[in-house]
Amino acid sequence: MDPTQQRSAVQLQSRPVSAGNWTEADEPPASEPRPRMSTVRTVAELRAALALARRAARTIGLVPTMGALHDGHLSLVRRAREQCDVVVVSLFVNPTQFDERADLERYPRREREDADAARAAGADLLFAPSVEEMYPQGFATTVEVAGVSERLEGEARGREHFRGVATVVAKLLCSALPDAAYFGQKDAQQLLVIRRLVRDLNLPVRIEALPTVREPDGLAMSSRNALLSAEERARARALPAALHAARAAAEHGERATHAILAAARDAMRPFGVQPEYVALVDPDTFEPVDELAGDALLALAARVGAVRLIDNVVVSPAASARAGERSHRTRPAPAATHTSNRPQAEAIATCSA
Ligand code: AMP
To answer: Which of 38, 171, 198, 207 could make an S-S bridge to 5, C-beta 3.0–4.6 Å?
Structure first.
């Protein structure tokens, strides 16, 4: 850490706190600017930068990312800013979760722009470790979450994918020891894997999930969107079109999974995009559902050119189809952040090819 960074990290930690006797003088003026965001590159620096904040019982929020930050990531940072005293954004393109070398190599990397965006969204600390810092010589431990990580993305990308995700998230959580960590519903299966990991290992952190942020035409924001050519970007609208069609079929009373999936596939065809998978699953287990009896998650993956994209949406049975039913499932409250497993229903723009 250079001396300027060290100074601002210390400022961050040493705001006045009186011992159980809060007085007006102790309270920082409302207009006090936050100290500049610092960048730290080692776990030791991260812990040192957070030590005083932790001792002063200031709450810490962590937003793990692989960078190339967009509004989806920044919605997590902003929420962390609202809820926590200290906001840490991690920036690490984790090689162990990539199943394709080419995907890892072309993954967009732009730390300077990311630092500016994270700071503007309210981050206090950027943790941008090297691969060697995260996986030093002799690194031998991995975390594997059975069950929820085995289907869909686990099947398509191999078990190394979620093993890589679970291991790096466990390392990030153990390094920053945040009170809360923020994740996007965009990666719904990853979110479920992380919730399972946190529960199974009794990690003392609250997992906050936020809804998917989309482009005006419905395409979910993703760092990989930057890799699409103009023609591919237009064809990528196949994904939100499929989600929209599945939702519309359910809203019109369709309950048979095969028919809902057929509606999704049909909607992709005019864009010349084939799904790698499209599935209707239980949001709590990612097990397939045969019939839409309550809220389910329509999850899909597709390649547009060389770029692999994923997306998902909550699909609910039509109100008329549910009438008179006694279902244990309830619709989630329309709050922006949610700590339960249950993803939120969201609107998706209509797209046509
Ligand atoms: P990534 O950098 O792709 O690993 O994503 C970091 C975090 O941002 C994960 O929790 C993602 O689920 C979340 N995220 C990615 N895209 C979006 C989006 N469009 N809306 C909301 N959250 C997102």
So the answer is: 38
Stated as kind and residue range, the H or E segment containing 104 is: helix 101-106
Facing residues of 206 across strands?
Answer: 180
In 3D space, the residue among 208, 211, 209 whose CA is nearest the CA of residue 221 turns out to be 211
Of 70, 73, 161, 338, the active-site residue reads 73
Q: Is 70 among the catalytic positions? A: no
How would you write the pLDDT of the chain (353 residues) with one tens digit per residue? Answer: 444 444 444 344 434 334 444 444 455 555 556 678 999 999 999 999 999 999 999 999 999 999 999 999 999 999 999 999 999 999 999 999 999 999 999 999 999 999 999 999 999 999 999 999 999 999 999 999 999 999 999 999 999 999 999 999 999 999 999 999 999 999 999 999 999 999 999 999 999 999 999 999 999 999 999 999 999 999 999 999 999 999 999 999 999 999 999 999 999 999 999 999 999 999 999 999 999 999 999 999 999 999 999 999 999 998 755 554 443 333 333 334 556 656 767 777 765 55
Report the separation in Å between the CA atom of 138 and the middle of ligand 1, taken as the mean of its atom positions.
30
Write the residue with the smallest CA distance to atom 22 of ligand 1: 184
Ligand 1 pocket check for 344: Cβ under 6 Å: no
Ligand 1, atom 12: nearest CA belongs to which residue?
184
Instruction: Please tell me the distance from the alpha carbon of residue 144 to that of residue 197, in angstroms, as a whole number.
Output: 8
Burial class (CB in 10 A: 0-12, 13-18, 19+), 18: exposed
Ligand 1, closest atom to CA 185? 12
The pairing of strands 275-281 and 296-304 is antiparallel
Ligand 1 in reach of 313 Cβ (< 6 A): no
Cβ of 183 below 6 Å from ligand 1: yes
